[in-house]
From TrEMBL:
Top-rank lineage group of the source organism: Bacteria
Residue intervals of the Xylose isomerase-like TIM barrel domain: 19-259
Name of the featured protein: TIM barrel protein
Signal peptide: none
Gene3D superfamilies from the UniProt entry: Divalent-metal-dependent TIM barrel enzymes (3.20.20.150)
Amino acid sequence: MKISVCTSGFKDWPIEKVLEWAHPLGFDGIELWMGHIERYQEEHGPLDKLYARLQEYGLEVPAISGYTTFSGGFSGEKDLKQEFKAMNRLLDVARQLKCPLIRTFVGHISSRRASPEQWGQIVRDVKKVMSMADQYEIDIAVEVHYDTFADNTESVQTLIREVDHPRLQLVFDGANLNVERIDQMDALPILYPLVKHVHLKNYKWDHSNWYKSTPVPIFEGDIDNRTLIKELERRGYPHYISFEYFGEKKEANIKGSLQNWNERQPAATECE
């Protein structure tokens, strides 16, 4: 189990600044926001330069975060052709940076509000994405997120079953489940076989007004991340956990989370 940090919370920073800040903190990897990659190419050219910088810092890229949803056909909010172009670009960049995984969303409305026709369309479109992923030998991980088709265990299982592709995986995010009042420890045993990446954060949560919720380090909020991490360790989880924070206190929350992480007591791993 390794740790990384998401650069999506640092959209106003150049990627060079993020790397310089993150490197001395002891992360194993860095989850790159696609916007940072595009900006780097505009300013510096080919990505082999960025890859060399990552190598110098000893940082892997466990995932690249895109913002595709593949819901453009619902009512014209997004151009579906552009979404496929964006995914093709994500896959190409992932190959260049030796990254095994693309993060995507599926849909931009709650699964409870989705019609059978919308489900059918999204399944067809995700199947096309998976054919693209096969060509690049990159996995696609759908983030478990409120207000998407992957906002609870049942909808996630339906999506995975209907798409039926071995490269389709999950980004597990217990904080997003908490928005839906779902306990991550109830969801994890159901979803664990599909989990290829984990986003970790915590909040003092205000369910009456989501955006008044206060982000805090991973062990200091309403979500029981200690138990989550112990269970992942017990199961021998081999992939990355990525700290994801936004807002003006993101740096302090990430550093506080690292302190929490380093002070924890590792759990015994599950016997085979």
